[in-house]
Amino acid sequence: MPRVGVVAVQGDVSEHAAAIDRAARSRGETAEVVEIRRSGIVPDCDALALPGGESTTISRLLRDEGIDEEIRAHVAAGKPVLATCAGLIVASRDAKDERVRTLDLLDVTVDRNAFGRQKDSFEAMLDVSGLDEPFPAVFIRAPLIDEVGADARVLAAWDGTPVAVREGPVVGTSFHPELTPDVRFHRLAFFD
Predict the structure, then answer these.
(1) What letters, b where the CB count within 10 A reaches 16 and e where it falls short, cover 107-140?
(2) Cross-strand partners of 138
(3) Tell me, what's the pLDDT at 90?
(4) Per the confidence metrics, is the pTM higher than 0.85?
(5) What is the pLDDT of residue 10?
(6) CATH number of the domain enclosing 123
(7) 15 catalytically annotated
(8) What are the pLDDT digits (tens) for 129-167?
(9) Which of 15, 16, 45, 176 does the annotation list as catalytic?
(10) Residue 69 confidence (pLDDT)
(11) pLDDT value at residue 119
(12) Dihedral sign, CA of 177, 10, 166, 76?
């Protein structure tokens, strides 16, 4: 049974936990989902979700709690991470904001809140590499991926702009796959 950690310093923690559980069950498996609020838990996880929230706060709390280095070691060991919205910002190479100390897990540059404010939130059906049918993506104060380096591969784009990328075991999305009943992104990141 895989142990999947949800970084729980801020963001859509319960929504990711429920999506992970549904994704595992959709494959006839069971996953143990644990919340991560302090160091010492990540090393025992087989996979991680880095949820949305407020990227400056998340990056500060990861550093203060010593979780940031554990996440880097997790990825260096080839273990999967799904980083969504603010999680993508924190996982990026460059957030173009000195307040965000990125983890440099994805060779991308992001622009925080580029898709607009809360009132500009929207849903869109995305064609995703690795998925047979379009995925219903929910964009809320979403970051824009404005530069994709050689080591990252674009999985999906919206209106010509990359919104989902993969580099090794790390999948990053500008949107919130955990806010839909569709578990295919969590399966793609953790179980496929």
Answers:
(1) bbbbbbbebeeeeeeeeeebebeebeeebbbbbb
(2) 123
(3) 97
(4) yes
(5) 85
(6) 3.40.50.880
(7) no
(8) 999 999 999 998 889 899 999 999 999 999 999 999 999
(9) 176
(10) 97
(11) 58
(12) negative
Counted domains in the chain = 1
Distance (Å, whole) CA 50 – CA 83: 5
Which residue range(s) make up the domain with 44?
Answer: 3-191
What φ, ψ does residue 184 adopt, rounded to 5°?
Answer: -65, -30
pLDDT of residue 115: 62
Task: Please report where in the chains the tokens 């280095």 appear, as a residue.
Answer: 69
Angle at the Cα of 44 from the Cα atoms of 42 and 48, rounded to 5 degrees: 45
Q: How many CB atoms lie within 10 A of CB 101?
A: 17
- Burial code (b: 16+ CB inside 10 Å, e: under 16) for 4-13 equals bbbbbbbbbb
29 as an active site residue: the answer is no
Catalytic one among 16, 45, 70, 85? 85
Q: How many CB atoms lie within 10 A of CB 18?
A: 16
pLDDT at 162: 96
Is 176 designated active site?
yes
Beta bridge partners, 166, equal 153, 171
Low-confidence ranges of the chain (pLDDT < 70): 113-120
